[in-house]
Amino acid sequence: MISEAMIKQINAQIANEFGAAHKYLAIACFFDDLALPALTAFFEKQSDEEREHAGKFIKYLRDVNARVTLHQITKPEASWQTPLDAIQTALDSELTVTKQINDLVDLAIKENDHATRGFLNWFVSEQVEEVSTMTTLRDAAKLAGQDYLRLNAYVRHWNTEAE
Ligand SMILES: [Fe+2]
Ligand SMILES: [Fe+2]
After folding, report:
1. Which residues hold their Cβ within 5 A of ligand 1, which is an ion?
2. Of the chain's two ends, which shows fewer C-beta atoms within 10 Å, N or C?
3. Structural domain spans, the chain
4. For the structural domain made of 4-162, what CATH number should be given?
5. Ligand nearest to the CA of 51
């Protein structure tokens, strides 16, 4: 049986994932304003993925017959000084989400909730990927410096690889 505490924490995580989707959409719009289409597309895709993450948590709660409670989403930051600042916001967000996922795993272990722990394994691996991708992008932004078009070209290469 899934505990009330676990249901509550997963519902909070659904809001965190939607919050991350919102944050990435704001970053995508920021890059669109700068006329950097590959970075815009990259963050739109990240935003879609975060919405999928929220969907996975929602499906899990429904699968275990637990009630889904949707929370209010925090208004995201909307402007940054530089692309590097926006990307740093994204990296910080991934590090925060990693901690949230680890806290969920800690609770599942504490409660001997093997089903939820198994479900969370996908998210543990996903966070390794997302932190790695965002760290690489942050480092690339540092290397590119003021050459935003070069950073955009670098990400365009990534976007095509992913297709
Ligand atoms: Fe996520
Ligand atoms: Fe993420």
Report:
1. 17, 50, 53
2. C
3. 4-162
4. 1.20.1260.10
5. 1
